[in-house]
Design brief:
A hairpin with a 2-residue loop joins strand 7 and strand 8. The protein is α+β, with helices and mostly antiparallel strands. The chain has helices spanning about 15-30, 45-50, 55-65, 85-90, 110, 120-130, 135-155, 165-180, 195-205, 210-215, 220-245, 255-260, 270-300, 305, 315-325, 355-360, 380, 400-415, and strands spanning about 35-40, 65-70, 75-80, 95-100, 160-165, 330-335, 340, 345, 350-355, 420-425, 430-435, 440, 445-450. The radius of gyration is 22 Å and the shape is globular. It has a 6-stranded mixed beta sheet with strand order 1-2-3-9-6-4, with helices on both faces. A 3-stranded antiparallel beta sheet has the order 5-13-10. A two-stranded antiparallel sheet has the order 7-8. Keywords: Heme, Iron, Metal-binding, Monooxygenase, Oxidoreductase. GO terms for molecular function: heme binding; iron ion binding; monooxygenase activity; oxidoreductase activity, acting on paired donors, with incorporation or reduction of molecular oxygen. This is Cytochrome P450. Belongs to the cytochrome P450 family.
Length: about 475
């Protein structure tokens, strides 16, 4: 039985005003100066960080190099870009950075104390308890269910039809996550609670401007987030109670968590389990949904690619994750003062890496704005510097759902390309929203075109048994 540390960490600040004051106090306490950058308060810069973070980070990289400071709203944030910085934060010096204390902790009001917002022994024990669910053979076994769900969702598709691919995939990915990971059938709740819609509402809070996020009271984004959270809690706590009552278990993560005990027989509380379930449902559907939308956006802009006999969907997915890595920023707080690239960074301050910006550095990537799947052909891939490509993070906290996500994306894309091509609605211009993950701000309106299967899309399973 995997060890479980029963006591989660103490709560951190979630009230925005308290948190701001706390941030300011910590910033003043920094023992060494912040790295060079734009450190004066600027609402224009803060707004740009919400609307065009990629442009903002790339401009700063050009002016200051790979380690620099930007004041975002009230707080100085150190950004570290490029292969060495990614390797430093994710692998070689990962212990010098905490997640809960950085901006990842902002998600706590919704996610609670799940894998994304915890550190140290509690994180290690929780991750260990969940890892068996993500072993290769479990993912292989889940592929059948994924194919069933995708085929059922594709049944209504017809030549000439218009649809929002983003909304369609979001529904599908949430169904797959709920069934495959938790054995919850969303149909059971449909009519009363639309889980995909509730997630969209709850997560919408983090894509609002900073000033709107501070508002409280009826009708505010905060109160809408809380309402959506309580409807989702109804589903998750309901299922936990049902499983405890009936003793029913299955091959799913919920069963694994319900039965987990430490050496003294201590079990996880309902609250612990709810937080992990919510974290995985969030991380497990939002990221794959955006990847599918961005992939088909690029394929629609480059229609010749999917028609070429040597078309390789896996390379196209890798290139999509380079250009649009959904979890685009890795927010942390430094523990001790450190030095990288000859620049000193104080301990106790927000430090972030960004895969999105690192994947667009002109000195690392040839024509970074061009969609070129061949960059990931084996011989070209070998030439990439260590730490250059990090869509799933790295080190001991690499995305736990990586194989699950890759299998799901592969199956959805193959099933679609086996029968259709998707054309963008005329006049559609992609605008990217950035929080909490990147995705198409206005969805992805497409028109379906019946077509012969694209190369390499014949067989559904992505991982061989
Ligand atoms: C295209 C699909 C996905 C991408 C690009 C992606 C990306 C990432 C990245 C970059 C991180 C690390 C964040 C950081 O370093 O700050 C991460 C962590 C995580 N991801 Fe994913 N993810 C994907 C799919 C999934 C799926 C399907 C699940 C669950 C079923 C999942 C669950 C998680 C969890 C729980 C963590 C935190 C792991 C830990 O700290 O131990 N992800 N993901």
């Amino acid at each position: 039985m995997p060890p479980v540390v029963a006591a989660p960490p103490p709560p951190a600040y979630t009230n925005p005003v308290g948190k701001m004051l706390h941030d300011v106090r910590r910033e003043r306490a920094a023992e060494v100066p912040f790295p060079a950058g734009d450190t004066r308060f600027s609402m224009a810069r803060t707004m740009r960080f919400t609307r065009d973070p990629l442009g903002l980070l790339l401009d700063a990289y050009e002016r200051y190099g790979p380690v620099f400071t930007l004041r975002i709203f009230h707080s100085n944030v150190v950004f570290m870009l490029g292969p060495e910085a990614n390797h430093y934060m994710l692998v070689s010096h990962a212990r010098n950075f905490t997640w809960r204390d950085g901006h990842m902790g902002d998600l706590m009001p919704f996610l609670g104390d799940g894998l994304l917002t915890i550190d140290g022994p509690f994180h290690r024990a929780s991750r260990m308890a969940m890892l068996p669910m993500f072993h290769r053979e479990r993912i292989v076994a889940m592929q059948e269910l994924m194919v069933q769900e995708v085929d059922a969702a594709l049944e209504t598709w017809q030549d000439g039809q218009r649809l929002d691919l983003y909304a369609w995939t979001r529904d599908l990915a949430l169904r797959i996550a709920m069934r495959a990971l938790f054995g919850i059938d969303p149909e059971h709740h449909r009519g009363r609670i639309d889980a995909a819609h509730e997630f969209e509402t709850a997560l919408g809070y983090w894509s609002k401007d900073y000033v709107l996020q501070i508002l409280r009271g009826p009708g505010s984004p905060w109160s809408r987030m809380l309402q959506a959270r309580s409807r989702l809690d109804e589903i998750v706590y309901g299922e936990i109670a049902r499983r405890r009552r009936t003793g029913r278990r299955g091959e799913d993560l919920l069963s694994l968590l319900l039965d987990a005990q430490d050496g003294d027989g201590v079990e996880l509380t309902d609250r612990n389990i709810r937080d992990e379930v919510m974290t995985l449902l969030f991380a497990g559907h939002d990221t794959t949904t955006s990847t599918i939308a961005f992939l088909f956006h690029e394929l629609a802009r480059h229609p010749e690619l999917a028609e070429a006999p040597g078309f390789d969907l896996d390379l196209a997915v890798e290139e999509t994750l380079r250009m649009y890595p959904p979890a685009w920023i890795g927010p942390r707080r430094s523990v001790q003062t450190f030095e990288l690239h000859g620049v000193t960074v104080p301990g106790g301050v927000p430090v972030e890496y960004s895969s999105w910006a690192s994947h667009h550095l002109p000195d690392v990537w040839d024509e970074p704005a061009a969609f070129r799947p061949q960059r990931f052909a084996p011989e070209a891939r070998e030439r990439l510097p260590k730490g250059a490509y990090v869509p799933f993070g790295g080190g001991s906290r690499t995305c736990i759902g990586m194989r699950f996500g890759q299998a799901e994306i592969g199956i959805i894309a193959r099933r679609i390309l086996g029968r259709f091509r998707l054309d963008l609605e005329p006049g559609y211009v992609l605008r990217v929203r950035q929080s909490p993950t990147i995705g198409p701000r206005d969805g992805l309106p497409v028109r379906l075109r019946a077509a012969a299967p694209a190369a390499g899309t014949g067989s559904a399973p992505v991982l061989a048994a």
